[in-house]
Amino acid sequence: MIKVLFVCLGNICRSPLAEGVFRQKTIEQDVGHLFHVDSAGTASYHIGALPDERSRAVVLKRGFELTHKARAFSAKDFSEFNYIIAMDKNNLNNIKRLMSDDTNSKVLLMRHFDMLAKDGEVPDPYYGDMKDFEHVYDILNRSCEVMLGYLMDELSTSGR
């Protein structure tokens, strides 16, 4: 099983959206049982809150729901997850500050998997409108598609 954690700042917009999109893709390809997926935030502003209503509205239009409750990222996540996927460089740096030398988790930017902007960041739509959330969904949809293929290749070569 591959364990993936998506991380943004508050864990109510981008990372739960990425978690939901990735989970939905695993369900559609009948490989959900091969993955454990979660999300967290590097700040503790919204602990216990559901995702932003605009994130939930974006996925409802696509036939699934986001039910995750916000939680804070912690150093113990390095021992729990194989992949920790940051939405932007600030959060990537915050994650790396907590890393120890013996961390085995692979820590990457989400858009590492986006062929349109491989070194880009997922913009924070929090202060935007629905079109900003739709734009983030499009980025995450593309990125999660490529990421799932990458992880399925890893599963087939590692024999997990």
| CATH topology value | Rossmann fold
Number of domains: 1
Question: Largest sheet, if any?
Answer: 4 strands, parallel
Average pLDDT figure: 95
The helix fraction, in percent, is 40-55%
CATH H level: which superfamily? Response regulator
Category from helices, strands and their pairing: alpha/beta
Shape: globular
Give me the CATH architecture, please.
3-Layer(aba) Sandwich
Number of helices: 5
Q: Report the portion of residues in β strands.
A: 5-15%
Q: Order of strands across the widest beta sheet?
A: 2-1-3-4
Radius of gyration: 14 Å
The CATH class: Alpha Beta
Give start-end ranges of low-pLDDT stretches: none
Please write the string of helix (H) and strand (E) elements. EHEHHEHEH
Number of strands: 4
Name the features:
160 residues, 41% helix, 4-stranded parallel beta sheet, Rossmann fold, alpha/beta
What would your notes on this structure say?
- This protein is of the alpha/beta class and about 160 residues long.
- The chain has one domain: Rossmann fold.
- The protein contains 5 helices and 4 strands, in the order βαβααβαβα.
Topology:
Elements: E1 2-8, H1 14-28, E2 35-41, H2 53-60, H3 77-80, E3 83-86, H4 89-97, E4 106-109, H5 130-158
Parallel strand pairs: 1-2, 1-3, 3-4
In short:
With 160 residues, the chain is an alpha/beta fold.
